[in-house]
Write a structure and sequence with these properties.
The protein is an alpha/beta fold. It has two domains: 3-151, CBS-domain (Roll), CATH 3.10.580.10; 162-226, Histidine-containing Protein, Chain: A (2-Layer Sandwich), CATH 3.30.1340. Helices cover 37% and strands 19% of the residues. The strands form three sheets. It has a three-stranded mixed sheet with strand order 3-4-5. Strands 6-7-8 form a three-stranded mixed sheet, with helices on one face. Helix 8 packs across helix 9 (202-216). The longest helix has 15 residues, at 202-216.
């Protein structure tokens, strides 16, 4: 693989994940799990068997309705059937991690691209994703791991030359068409960018500004008119 192709390859779970894992077994006690969370500064622990197969995840949320807290009587929304109430009872009083953990875990394969990871974390409002290889736990990727990628980012190099800059801006505007009601007109003369047209909101204007500044730097001639509604 060439250096260019390596650079263009998207980051994947295996590139981001934490490989040094702190796990518990389903036979550990909930007090043991809570102690590990406190001492390690983590909010959840993968639950695995002796072969490394993922069985579930036990989190701080799983321990919020506990007899030790006096919250065991709080009924979870939707827990109206006898089985639901019985499970809630067991979860609030059992000492075993296996009874308290969440068995339905959203996971990713180690080859999952970063955009899929970000989507899953956002859509399901979770903090971490176990990473699997052939069904075995090999790592965990978290929101913090994605923030590291964001913090390491840098602005793209400015494009030189009027026509090259114009073409680059137009290409990026077309790539953002899902966010724009219509494509603006772009002219570049002597390194000065002039953008004209109509947008639906200040948010669209800001989207165009970000695109233009990403190519040519700040200070372009903004001739965009906001049209709140069109007949």
């Amino acid at each position: 693989m060439s250096a260019l192709k390596e650079k263009d390859c998207p980051m994947r779970a295996k590139d981001l994940m934490t490989r040094t894992l702190v796990t518990v077994s389903s036979d550990h006690s909930v007090w043991h799990a809570a102690h590990i969370m406190l001492t390690k500064g983590v909010s959840g622990l993968p639950v695995v068997d002796d072969s490394g197969k993922l069985l579930g995840v036990v989190t701080e949320g799983d321990l919020l309705r506990r007899s030790e807290l006096g919250t065991e009587g709080i009924v979870v929304d939707g827990a109206k059937e006898p089985d639901d109430l019985a499970r809630a009872y067991v979860k609030s009083r059992s000492w075993k991690v296996g009874d308290v953990m969440s068995p339905d875990v959203i996971t990713v394969d180690e080859g999952a691209p970063i955009e899929k990871i970000a989507m899953l974390l956002g859509v399901h409002q979770i903090k971490r994703l176990p990473v699997l290889r052939s069904g075995r736990l090999v790592g965990v990727v978290s929101r913090a791991d994605l923030l590291k990628v964001v913090s390491a980012g840098k602005p793209e190099s400015e494009v030189k030359g009027d026509e090259a800059a114009r073409r680059a801006i137009i290409a990026r505007l077309q790539g953002a068409e899902i966010a724009l009601g219509r494509q603006p007109e772009v002219n570049v003369t002597g390194g000065r960018v002039r953008v004209t047209g109509a947008v639906r909101s200040s948010a669209e204007r800001n989207a165009i500004r970000i695109i233009v500044e990403g190519v040519a730097g700040p200070g372009f001639d903004d001739q965009l008119a906001i049209i709140e509604s069109e007949q």
